[in-house]
Amino acid sequence: MTTHHENQALPPKTCTIERLVTLPEDVAKVIAGQKTATRRNGRYADVGEIMTLEGKQFVVERVYAQTLGELTDEHAQQEGFENVEAYKQSILSIHPGMPWLPHMRVWVHEFRAV
């Protein structure tokens, strides 16, 4: 498994936490407690950083790398989807032409309401 654990040094952030969750449907899922993680192609937040969505605060609890091939239905459920296939189809609809490659590495940001 290629997942990095919290005790390993993380590379510099590639974006800001304000860009971590931006799609209105994703914001609604986070606020409703249906989405507790976001996967991005870069690192957008540090552990302990606070994300504010519609006046509500969420703290980032874990940040680690994962490959798309490692995704399970449980991971997809963290993203607010029933299973990996539903998550995959959503991502591909947002990013037309993006290949879904099992070896592609993404950064997982897990969070919870403050």
Which tags fit this structure?
3 helices; globular; 4-stranded antiparallel sheet; alpha+beta; Sulfate adenylyltransferase; ASCH_domain; ASCH domain-containing protein; PUA-like_sf; 4 strands; single chain; 114 residues
Brief overview:
The protein has 114 residues and is an alpha+beta fold. The protein contains 3 helices and 4 strands.
Explained architecture:
The protein is an alpha+beta fold and 114 residues long. It has one domain (17-113): Roll (Sulfate adenylyltransferase). The chain has helices at 24-31, 73-78, 84-94, and strands at residues 37-40, 50-53, 56-67, 105-113. The radius of gyration is 13 Å and the shape is globular. The chain starts with 23 loop residues before the first helix and ends with a strand. Mean pLDDT is 93; it is low at 1-7.
